[in-house]
Amino acid sequence: MHKLLVLYPEPTDPDHFRDYYVSNHLPLVAKMPGLLAYRYSFEVAATQGKPPYFAVFEAEFADAAALAAARRSPHGQRVAADVANYATGGVVVIDYPAQNGTI
Question: Where does the record place the EthD domain (predicted)?
Answer without folding.
Answer: 10-88
